[in-house]
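Task card 7
Instruction: Convert sequence to structure tokens.
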Amino acid sequence: MASFRVRCVSCERQWHSATMADGLRLVGACPRCGGKLLWAGPAEAYVPEVPAGRKQLSAPHLVLGPPRR
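Output:
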């Protein structure tokens, strides 16, 4: 298994958490440089389950923060 969940092909930044992988799946590009993302497995595998009693998950910008460009 890869040591990362998602890696940017351009700047080689790596992300390791499932929450970040889900946010990046929704964003679709590296928030740092806008490059293409490489997944350690299928991107859909990082969709988290909604915990009981919670109606929706946090929006990607609340997890990732504003992009640095």
